Inverse folding.
């Protein structure tokens, strides 16, 4: 049995992965943005070991999530599932002065990676939209360009791959991988999304807990239980290190390496 923490798991793919892992006999702790959503999650999945709360758009609240997780003891795996999509009407700025999409999709998993006691496995959710998307690390805060929600989202998902691959290099004792769940009809994906919803949550659960040799790897990228190539640019170690440096500066937190 593994102990697994999943961000953004009060509904959607996070909740689906949690339910699957619990059915497999694992202990799962959920995460919700606020107390009301946490109560909903407890009602829907009472078998969960617990629920931590905190809005990942806020650096202070994200640190609070990490503190809550660490108080619960060591986890074997963390699935960084939480994310927001590209349908926001404009550049929404967080309380820390950062773009909402970047804060939740990139900086929050970085902060949690830096602060949560090191697990054996880390799983980061990316998207097929990261393919062919430059990171544009020169304007990570979108202050020099006209806002483009779709591009901002795609860039954030490219950065999630950079983060996963950087951590795989820094921490050889941890299995760190990224995946794309497919374009599925969640709240983020929209009702017209064409991919198979039943397959969307299985890869993150598999990477977090499976004894399959194909899941016990690091620095890889997956889709529907199979390894596939990420955008080749994400393999650029200098770019990975540059992103980590930016996240260190914005958060004031350093990943050990």
């Amino acid at each position: 049995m593994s102990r697994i923490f999943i961000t953004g798991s009060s509904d959607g793919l996070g909740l689906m992965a949690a339910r699957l892992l619990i059915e497999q006999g694992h202990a799962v702790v959920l995460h919700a943005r606020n107390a009301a959503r946490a109560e909903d999650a407890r009602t829907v999945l009472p078998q969960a070991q617990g629920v931590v709360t905190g809005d990942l758009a806020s650096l202070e609240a994200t640190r609070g999530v990490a503190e809550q997780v660490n108080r619960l003891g060591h986890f074997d795996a963390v699935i960084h599932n939480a994310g927001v999509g590209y349908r926001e009407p404009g550049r929404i700025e967080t309380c820390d002065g950062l773009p909402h999409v970047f804060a939740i999709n990139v900086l929050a998993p970085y902060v949690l990676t830096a602060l949560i006691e090191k697990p054996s496995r880390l799983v980061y959710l990316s998207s097929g939209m990261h393919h062919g998307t430059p990171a544009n690390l020169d304007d990570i805060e979108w202050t020099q360009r006209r806002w483009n929600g779709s591009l901002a989202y795609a860039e954030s998902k490219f950065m999630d791959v950079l983060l996963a691959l950087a951590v795989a290099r820094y921490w050889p004792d941890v299995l760190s991988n990224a995946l794309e769940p497919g374009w599925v009809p969640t709240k983020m994906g929209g009702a017209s999304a064409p991919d198979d919803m039943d397959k969307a949550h299985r890869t993150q659960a598999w990477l977090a807990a499976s004894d399959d040799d194909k899941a016990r790897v690091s620095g890889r990228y997956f889709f529907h239980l199979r390894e596939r190539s990420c955008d080749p640019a994400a393999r650029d170690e200098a770019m990975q290190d540059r992103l980590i440096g930016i996240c260190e500066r914005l958060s004031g937190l350093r990943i050990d390496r």
Remarks:
- The chain has eight helices and eight strands.
